[in-house]
Structure formats: structure tokens, C-alpha cells
Amino acid sequence: MYGDPILLASESPRRASILESLHIPFITVVPRIDEQIFDHLDPGERVVALAATKARRGKERWIEGKKLYCDPLPEPMEKPAEPRFALGADTLVAFRTPEGWHTIGKPIDEQDAYAMLTMEAGNRQYVFSGLCLLDMENDVPHVALSVSEVQFSPMSAADIAWYINLGEWKGAAGAYRIQGAGSYFIEDIKGSFSGVMGLPIRELYGILRQSGYLSSEEIQG
Questions:
Q1: Which of 6, 23, 171, 191 is buried most, with the most CB atoms less than 10 Å from its CB?
Q2: Pairing of strands 85-97, 26-29
Q3: SS3 letters across 116-183
Q4: For residue 46, which phi and psi values (nearest 5 degrees)?
């Protein structure tokens, strides 16, 4: 049985569903940061920096929210659970070019999604997923990075239009969801399937152990 809930600094339903599948209790806050502040960094550094920024902003949002409660709370209200750790995550799709990395994030509309999928069709991309588990009590970050390769099959204009009409592109890095109908167009993946979804499980396990949130006694039962 895990301990106190983790503060998930993300509005991604995919990350929430992964934590649920791992039976990790969590409370969600929306960090709302400027995701372009680290555009000057290489993709791996960028996603880790954004994940850390989201975790710290999540901590700030949690503290701000706590100020709305009075002590003692009026009946029948109960004091919310007190998380010690805040989890931030960020995912970015990138392509190698002679000039360096070309990165794409989340599409802003259908036209943007169409352009992204056209670029991805028939090509190999790299998916960078950064994690930061912030010990809010000691202000100590535990970070991790997952890098996966995804090979897309060729896609016709009709394929792309059909997929866009499904709506999976909304809020998805690279305009597709590998755990959904987007998998129709994936020929090969090297690395972390959950990392392409946005929350690499193996790397998450590592920082949960490193931080002390997950102990050997809990694993052994």
C-alpha cells in the first residue's frame, strides 16, 4: 500500500490514467506555465526543465489552495490529504535534421495537426519525456529522462484527414496518441511505450525509489 498521495502537476488524462493503473494515489493541480521558456535548450534538457518547472508550479498552486481552507474546518468538511511530493512531466517530439533538432509540441488546431502528421508520416521521430518528482518538504528534485524512437508508416492525405476527424490530436504531443487509433500508423517503437504516452513508467519507478516515496519494504509486501 502506497503512502500519501502524489501531487500530479498536469492536466493530462493519460498521465492520470497511468498513475491509476499503478495504484498510486494522487491529487491533480493544473500548473499553467509558459511552455516556450526553454525553447533554446536541446529536447532532452528542455523536457526535464519543463517537468521541474511544472512540479514547482504545482507546489505553489497547492500552497495557494491550502490558504482557502480555515482551521478548524467547518463540519462536515475534512482536511485534504497532505502530499509530500509533486510530480511534473513533459513530452516533446523531435526529428534529427542536418541543422540539429526540429521539435514539435501540441497542435493548436486541425491545420497544425495536419501539418505535424504530414511531417511524421513515413519518418522516424524521437519522443523525449522528462520527469521531476519534487520533494516539497526538502525542496529536492528527482529527475529522469526517457527517449524513445517511433517509426511512422506512410500516410495518405485521406489517412491523415480520417485520423484528424477522430479528435485524438487534441492536447497530444505530435498530434497523435499511440495508445489509441494513432497506433494504426506506427510501424516500430524502440524504447518506452508509456514514455511516448507521456509518463515513462520505468523512469518513474526509479525516481519513486530514489526519493524514498517507494521503499523496498513496500515492494516486498
A1: 6
A2: unpaired
A3: HHHHHCCCEEEEEEEEEEEECCCCEEEEEEEEEEEEECCCCHHHHHHHHHHCCCCCCHHHCCCCCHHH
A4: -65, -45
- Record the pTM: 0.88
Which amino acid is present at 111?
Q
Helix pair 110-120, 157-166: axis angle to 10 deg: 130
Cell numbers for 47 = 523536457
Q: Which of 42, 90, 135, 159 is catalytic?
A: 90
**DSSP designation for 72:** S
Q: Strand, coil or helix: what is 104?
A: strand
Does residue 71 carry a catalytic annotation? no
How many helical (H) and strand (E) elements, i.e. helices and strands, does the chain have? 7, 7
CA atoms within a 13 Å half-sphere pointing along the CA-CB vector of 53: 14
Q: Can you give the pLDDT at residue 214?
A: 85
> Would you state the pLDDT for residue 70?
47
CA 133 to chain centre: 12
**CA distance linking residue 49 with residue 51, whole number of Å:** 5
- Per-residue pLDDT at 75 exceeds 80: no
pLDDT of residue 65: 80
Q: How far is CA 11 from the centre of its chain?
A: 9
